[in-house]
Write a structure and sequence with these properties.
The complex is a heterodimer. Chain A is an all-beta fold. Chain A is 0% helix and 44% strand. Chain A contains no helices and eleven strands. In chain A, strands 2, 5, 6, 9, 10 and 11 form a six-stranded mixed beta sheet that branches. The radius of gyration of chain A is 13 Å and the shape is globular. By secondary structure, chain B is mainly β. In chain B, a hairpin with a 5-residue loop joins strand 6 and strand 7. In chain B, strands 2, 4, 5, 8, 9 and 10 form a six-stranded mixed beta sheet that branches. A four-stranded antiparallel beta sheet of chain B has the order 1-3-7-6, with no helix packed on it. Chain B contains no helices and ten strands. Chain B starts with a strand and ends with a strand.
């Protein structure tokens, strides 16, 4: 079965510290993977997708097919990065989202 | 143009009443999705539409839930005989089509509270 696992419900770091939000997936085909973000009082929006291989707001994510992972990383967290982050697997016609990780960046 | 819109933004209802939630997707987007967002549960997929057609309704939590889409645009999610466990934020999203690598554009959600 297709599944997306985000093992951490909450990640708390201090400003300037590195951050890594974990995402593991289970899918037999070739995955399309995304990270979506929801800032306080804003709607859910796309942060980045693996196919673009780009860095957005300092975040990067590399697809590791061997480990079936798509972890989101940023070398130096900022307070404005505090938000809810969802990893998503696009497959067939039914997208699968992880349960989300709440990132809190303390000053 | 405008993004995805949803109405109402908040709905408080009594247990046993029916509610109707509305979604206006981005113009030209043929794919439309409904999700339920509960505290600690993440995003639960409910149903998708390609045009006016919903080929797979297995994600709907019970037969009290139904959805339709007309004119390839507006969609409504109806919950009959609401229960307290239906309380959640209901999100709608649209994308250009059903291709797996397409970005989904989300609406602001409808917060449903069942008393």
């Amino acid at each position: 079965a297709q599944r997306v696992t985000q093992p951490e419900k909450l990640l708390s770091v201090f400003k300037g510290a590195p951050v890594e939000l974990k995402c593991n997936y289970s899918y037999s085909g070739s995955p399309e993977l995304f990270w979506y973000v929801q800032y306080s009082r804003q709607r859910l929006q796309l942060l980045l997708r693996h196919i673009s291989r780009e860095s957005i707001k300092g975040f990067t994510a590399d697809l590791n097919k061997g480990e079936t992972s798509f972890h989101l990383k940023k070398p130096f967290a900022q307070e404005e990065d505090s938000a809810m982050y969802y990893c998503a697997l696009g497959r067939s016609y039914i997208p699968t989202f992880g349960r989300g990780t709440s990132l809190i960046v303390h000053p | 143009g405008a993004g995805v819109s949803q109405s109402p933004s908040n709905k408080v209802t009594e247990k046993g009443k029916d509610v109707e939630l509305r979604c206006d997707p981005i113009s030209g987007h043929t794919a439309l999705y409904w999700y339920r967002q509960s505290l600690g549960q993440g995003l639960e997929f409910l149903i998708y539409f390609q045009g006016n057609s919903a080929p797979d309704k297995s994600g709907l939590p019970s037969d009290r839930f139904s959805a339709e889409r007309t004119g390839g645009s507006v969609s409504t999610l109806t919950i009959q005989r609401t229960q307290q466990e239906d309380s959640a934020v209901y999100l709608c999203a649209s994308s250009l089509n059903l291709a797996a690598n397409n970005e989904q554009f989300f609406g602001p959600g409808t917060r449903l509270t069942v008393l």
